[in-house]
Amino acid sequence: MTMMHQWTALVAAVLIISGHVASAQSLCDTPQCECDDTLSQVRCSCRKVPHESQDIVLKAQGPGHVPRVATNVVVTQCDRVKVLAMAFDGARSLWTVEIESVRRLEMADEAFGWSDNGGGVPGQPPQPHHHHHPGLTVTITNVTSVPEVPSYAFRGRLRSVTFNRVRIDAVRPFAFSSLTGTTGRIEFRDTVFGQVDQQAFKKFAVNEFVLKGCRFEGAAPSRMLTEITVHDELRLDDVTLPVVQSYAFRVHGPKVFRVQNSRAGCVQSGAFEVKCRGPAFVEDNAFGRLERGAFAGVTVDAHKVAEADYQEFVFENNTVAEFEDDALVFDTNGFPAAHGLADRGTGVRMSGPVAHRPSGLLHGLSAAHGPSQLGG
């Protein structure tokens, strides 16, 4: 073999080895994961390889990175999953991320930050792209412990975010913030919240925001949801809260607002500041204590009022143990017919010490327009 042939063979061998090393650095080549031929479908399961590490780290760069051509990423049955900052942002064609049946899920700041142009910069809002990708769908199911949802963990273009059967120890300020466009749905189902900080959900638009079967171990703090626009439905269903602090829910625009089948130890004054574009329903709940004007902040959007497009407020079948004077004050500018209040009594089943009930509470609404109250 001539010297030229030797050099050619050596270069070819180096290229082959280099190519193999490069491909091995993808998440697809880790023992816990497998992918299709195009590397678009990524599925990882730690239990399938019990002799290997039961931890997975999701990241955008370096060994074990999420393939840039991935469209779906599924991670199941691991002891620990760690999501680094902007872990999925390099995958421009990504549609779904599912994390299921893991013991511990750790998130860095901006863990689920994503934009359809990729290459986002941590700490900076994602830049819009001319393509109309609907956004990333994130589903987190059956997770024993999420120590923290840090600031800006969810940012950028997200189609929907769902937590189901999860325990979250802490939700930090701006955990959900800087969302691009309108997110389709944010839902927490059967989720336990240890601590939720003020401004955990701030300044974004979403079609539906749902809390279903959730339990708060600490208070729902003031400005927990603030500067939020909900286009379709804001719903609390079968939710347990020890305290709902004043201005905990500051939301504009829902076509339907519901608080149903829920329990709250104390609802402070003005806890719900919700400007509705449709009806409001507060039904089948148990309240330990209602402070003055607990629901007075539930109003109808000014444009609806100007157009005389009045809505209904249904307050029925609620059990109240204790309440202050003027606890059941409602702004009827846009709710002239508050069902369950004027025509059929209060719709409230009274329980608890009689001494805590203001006199005349059952007399009905005093006026058709303007702030009105039950009582004499």
Task: Please render the helix and strand layout as text.
Blueprint: H1 3-24, E1 33-35, E2 41-45, E3 55-58, E4 72-83, E5 96-107, E6 136-146, E7 154-156, E8 158-171, E9 176-179, E10 182-196, E11 201-212, E12 215-216, E13 225-237, E14 240-244, E15 249-252, E16 256-260, E17 263-267, E18 272-276, E19 280-283, E20 286-290, E21 298-300, H2 302-306, E22 312-316, E23 318-323, E24 329-331, E25 337-339, E26 343-346, E27 348-350, E28 371-373
Summarize the model shown.
This protein has 376 residues and is mainly β. It has helices at residues 3-24, 302-306, and strands at 33-35, 41-45, 55-58, 72-83, 96-107, 136-146, 154-156, 158-171, 176-179, 182-196, 201-212, 215-216, 225-237, 240-244, 249-252, 256-260, 263-267, 272-276, 280-283, 286-290, 298-300, 312-316, 318-323, 329-331, 337-339, 343-346, 348-350, 371-373. It starts with a helix and ends with a strand.
What does this entry look like structurally?
The chain is mainly β. 7% of the residues lie in helices and 46% in strands. The strands form four sheets. It has an 18-stranded mixed β-sheet that branches. Strands 14-17-20-23-27 form a five-stranded parallel β-sheet, with no helix packed on it. A two-stranded parallel ribbon has the order 7-9. 40% of the residues are buried. The model is unreliable at 6-24, 126-130 and 341-376 (pLDDT under 50). Residues 115-135 are annotated as: Disordered. Residues 1-24 form the signal peptide. Keywords: Signal.
